[in-house]
Each structure stands twice: as structure tokens, then as C-alpha cells.
Design goal:
The complex is a heterodimer of chains A (115) and B (113).
Chain A lengths: L3 E4 L2 E4 L5 E7 L3 E9 L5 E7 L6 E2 L10 E5 L2 E6 L8 E9 L7 E2 L3 E5 L1
Parallel strand pairs in A: 2-11
Antiparallel strand pairs in A: 1-3, 3-8, 4-5, 4-9, 5-6, 7-8, 9-10, 9-11
Chain B lengths: L3 E4 L2 E5 L4 E7 L6 E7 L6 E7 L4 E4 L2 E6 L4 E6 L8 E8 L7 E3 L3 E6 L1
Parallel strand pairs in B: 2-11
Antiparallel strand pairs in B: 1-3, 3-8, 4-5, 4-9, 6-7, 7-8, 9-10, 9-11
Classes of the chains: A mainly beta (115), B mainly beta (113).
């Protein structure tokens, strides 16, 4: 398994500002992902974070709104830009472990409230 | 793309009873099926998984069954305890195709003491 940490754990932000969420994994990973989970809902994949290249975004998510970086194998950031109240959600990072099974391990999430 | 349906959305059982959550998937190429437990305020935690070459897998009080022909899989929790109360998510993926997971809509399980 893997231990995944996220920072911050929660934040309250003003409309129009941006927040960067950090994700750190304690193992060598192959793939890293970012999800959004709205209250009481399932997980929606935002993008796959690719090391050294642009992230792969899912339909409905764009780089200008959710820029993602992955400078090395174990670290990634997600920025939520120009926030509106509709961005209030839980943002989750996940990772698959190099040399391990194909499962994904999740971080504890970042709870974001936009006023 | 893959579509995963999960039922029921809510489930209440008495402590000690069994709980069953069912999922169906649409893409016959899916070959990996994990189950996650999410407690309030936490991220999803993998509790059990099954691959398409296996029909059933058990881990203590938890078991998962897979019917590839019918494209459905189920989570079985026996001798439920209050600490089993959480939201459970199933997922399906094609492990050789970018490892993208398709999640079910979740089941909120309440175990009544």
C-alpha cells in the first residue's frame, strides 16, 4: 500500500481567488490522479497527472481552470483557479504504486469551501 | 465508456446481520474491480478487490463475488458491526488501459447497534 498526504486538509476561500493543493506519496508511483467529490456524491476524475508533461483532462475539465503539475514521481499539485461557490467540493489525490497491483490509493482529501 | 451502477444507495442493518451491495458494469473489457470504504471526513480506503479471473474473494468478514457473464459484482459483509457504518463505493477498470477507474454512485451503510 501507500501513504498519501494532502495539504491543506481544508480551506475557506473567497470567490475569484485560486488555491493550490499538494499531494505527496511515500512510495514510487506509476500514475497519479485528481478527483472531485461533491457532497454526498461519487468520485469524478478531473485528470491524470503525468510526470514531466501536461496532464490528461477528462471531459468537462480544462487546464485553465485546473492546472496540474507533477514535477517528480511522488509529488503533484492541483490548482483550482478563479474559484466560484460551485467549486466547493472535496478534492482527492490518488496514486498507483510502481511494481504493485493496479489499484489506486487515496489521500485524505482537501475540503474546499468557496464563499 | 464504462458505466457502473450501484445499489442500494442507502442500507440499514442491525448489528450482526449481513449487508450486500451490488454493482453492475457495462464494458466487458473491464477486468479489475475494487471496493472502497469512505468514512466521514476521510478519503476512500481500499477494502477488497477482485480480478476477472477469479469468481470470489474473502477477507475475514468481507467477501466479493464476480459474475463476468452477467457483468455484476457484489460486496458481502457478514456479522456487521457499528464501525462498518460508512459509504461504500465499487469501481471497475481495464487494468491495461491507463488504469482509469469508473466509480459507482456509493452506498451509505448504517449498522444499528
Amino acid at each position: 500500500s501507500a501513504v498519501i498526504s494532502q495539504k491543506p486538509s481544508r480551506d475557506i476561500c473567497q470567490r475569484g481567488t485560486s488555491l493550490t493543493i499538494q499531494c505527496q506519496v511515500d512510495s514510487q508511483v506509476t500514475m497519479m490522479f485528481w478527483y472531485r467529490q461533491q457532497p454526498g456524491q461519487s468520485l469524478t476524475l478531473i485528470a491524470t497527472a503525468n510526470q514531466g508533461s501536461e496532464a490528461t483532462y477528462e471531459s468537462g475539465f480544462v487546464i485553465d481552470k485546473f492546472p496540474i503539475s507533477r514535477p517528480n514521481l511522488t509529488f503533484s499539485t492541483l490548482t483550482v483557479s478563479n474559484m466560484s461557490p460551485e467549486d466547493s467540493s472535496i478534492y482527492l489525490c490518488s496514486a498507483s504504486i510502481a511494481g504493485g497491483p493496479e489499484t489506486q490509493y487515496f489521500g485524505p482529501g482537501t475540503r474546499l469551501l468557496v464563499l | 465508456g464504462e458505466n457502473v451502477e450501484q445499489h442500494p444507495s442507502t442500507l440499514s442493518v442491525q448489528e450482526g446481520d449481513s449487508a450486500v451491495i451490488k454493482c453492475t458494469y457495462s464494458d466487458s473489457a473491464s477486468n479489475y474491480f475494487p471496493w472502497y470504504k469512505q468514512e466521514l471526513g476521510k478519503g476512500p480506503q481500499l477494502i477488497i478487490d477482485i480480478r476477472s479471473n477469479v469468481g470470489e474473494k474473502k477477507d475475514q468478514r468481507i467477501a466479493v463475488t464476480l459474475n463476468k457473464t452477467a457483468k455484476h459484482f457484489s460486496l458481502h459483509i457478514t456479522e456487521t458491526q457499528p464501525e462498518d457504518s460508512a459509504v461504500y463505493f465499487c469501481a471497475a477498470s481495464i487494468s491495461t488501459s491507463g488504469n482509469q477507474f469508473y466509480f459507482g454512485t456509493g452506498t451509505s451503510l448504517t449498522v444499528i447497534p
